[in-house]
Amino acid sequence: MNEARDLSERGRAAFAARVWDEAFALLSAADRAGHLEPSDLDRLATAAYLVGRDDESQDIAARSFRGWLRSGDSARAVRRAFWLGLHLLLDGDETRGQAWLARAAELLPADGGEPERGYLLTPEALHRLDEGDAAASHAISAEVLAIGERHDDLDLVALGRLGVGQALVELGEVGRGVAALDEVMVAVTTDDVSPQLAGIVYCAVIETCQRVLDVRRAREWTAALTRWCDAQPGLVPYRGQCLVHRAEIMRLHGEWSGALDEARSACGFLDGSAAAGAAYYQLAELRRLRGEFADAEDGYRAASRWVADPQPGIALLRLAQGRVDAAAAASRRALEAAHGRADRSRLLGAHAQIMLACGDVGAARAAADELRVIDEVFAAPLLHAQAEQADGACLLAEGDAATALGVLRRAWAVWQDLDAPYEAALVRVLIAQAHRLLGEPEPAEMELETAAWMFDQLGAGPDARRARALSERAAARGAGGLTRREVEVLRLVATGMTNRAVATELFLSERTVARHVSNIFTKLDVSSRSAATAYAYQHGLV
């Protein structure tokens, strides 16, 4: 008995110091040496969860729940059942998670049983948010926050404020929503909440910041999450999510080699859990950008085990493969399924690009205009850059190169400010096209040479080849046996222009353009404008 008491005391000390592997080992030994009180079983269940022993954590938590019931402390039993149910839900085990939450609800007294009722309201708020009813989620989360403040329960306050912030973002009140999330993070970074809640809050806040494309906050909170993980020996959950967030940020900043390492590590940490989908998606995105299309295909397929439709990555992969019709179908399907502003904003830039590739300028313009409206609501620099870029690309397709040039230069400036070299290089290619349409070949060549060099530095092989193929020198050599004039016509056709618009742009008759288009179809052995557009994208002519 003395041995069990000594092990328990040392285990509690390790738990308080957040040395989770030591706490788990000592409390497990104490459990084997003698009977643990429910409070120590709670600690052991939490430590087991934090060192990645999920199955053992669930079994120990169930024992703790029964221990609290036997002792007559139904309030503590409710809380234990809540945390067990919530972790199961977050891990994707909906059936068992809901069963534990239902058991907890049965134990609430008729008068409501605050603050335990507040905890059990939290999953309902999450469910309403997932169902797209942000207003109901906000109301429930506000009630959770009020209960937490009445009872000075800091975990409950954090859960309520987190829900309020997420709901406000979905309701379009991004400024107020992000301010609420900042308040939650203050409590987390000052260790005012329990460790099992802190990790959940870190990941939820970072994901929300990424959803609204608030790169600065996502970067800052990811750095804080990294420090939090590193300060806790033995911590396993949240390290994988931390690596995913780091990979996404490093990809944006052009650190592709390091991002690949982080994404691979995240896949190892998270494989088998619901969060693995995000890890495999990031890995696939990096491989697509590097031109490793077969590996990218494998990555998206792996992500699809947890993510219903990994978009816009798959649609952009199809575009890079020259399968323009497949890219357009995938992009349209993904956009139709996306309802909230945040979800749609993540797809619209790629959708505009793909619609231009398949010649549907009207659909591209609609996507660019919607992106502009969301940009005004979210007011995030990354989203603003995407909106300007999509608008500029549409203006090029519509034949207004002069206006496009000004818009694209603004987009480039924002990407530069965000330190996003790949996106900045993409815009420089569009700027080159604007210069060429304005009859300014020298600045066009300079932009293309710079863009190709930037793509080379990143390892973006397909984009580097496309930028070089767009140069006047490449055009002069021709492609697929096309004459220089036919290449010019094909480029404009690939932006979605009609024969009449091409004729106006090149100062030719509509009949001459029709003859050029017919010759292009014959030389390339294609039978439609979409197939010719696919060839142009495959061979770097657009």
TrEMBL record:
GO biological process: regulation of DNA-templated transcription
Domain of life: Bacteria
UniProt keywords, alphabetically: DNA-binding, Transcription, Transcription regulation
Segments forming domain HTH luxR-type: 475-540
Pfam families listed in its UniProt record: GerE
A molecular-function term among this protein's GO annotations: DNA binding
Protein name: Regulatory protein, luxR family
Protein's organism: Jiangella alkaliphila
Lineage: Bacteria, Bacillati, Actinomycetota, Actinomycetes, Jiangellales
